[in-house]
Amino acid sequence: MSGTREIAEAIAARIRASSHEVDVLDAADVRSVLPYKAVIVGSALYAGRWRPEAVKLLQRNADLLARRPVWLFHSGPLGTEQVPQRAPRKVRDLAARIGADEPKTFGGRLTPQTAVGFFAKKMANGPMAGDYRDWDEIELWAYEIAQQLVSAR
């Protein structure tokens, strides 16, 4: 399971604990957000880029997303000294169009067991390899979303 998917599952679990129904879907499998009252979209951040399927989800559903609460996150920075990473311009522009804040940055995971592709495998055996996700930070962010959803009821 991808590191970003694991973050999404943790967010979903926290929001479910606040008595909300939650679906966790791959961005490529979402044709429309119409059935949802609120949406969280996450992507891995590779070389400063979001996954294309996550960007396409935002583009395809921009009008619908503009009419519901939306939160965005990305994961990917490696290392112990992490600073929030700006989303690519296209994602920042889409966030502004739909009325969402810039994406929340979470640390990423890159290990020899999970690396895919030549460069990732090389990096996974280097000094930046590891799991830099801060589960307390993820839990807190999800809790804040759950509280906003409760307030919106």
UniProtKB/TrEMBL annotation:
InterPro entries: Flavodoxin_dom, Flavoprotein-like_sf
UniProt cross-references to Pfam families, sorted A to Z: Flavodoxin_5
Residue span, Flavodoxin domain: 4-128
Signal peptide start and end residues: none
Protein name per its UniProtKB record: Flavodoxin
Organism: Lentzea flava
Phylogenetic lineage: Bacteria, Bacillati, Actinomycetota, Actinomycetes, Pseudonocardiales
Gene: hemG
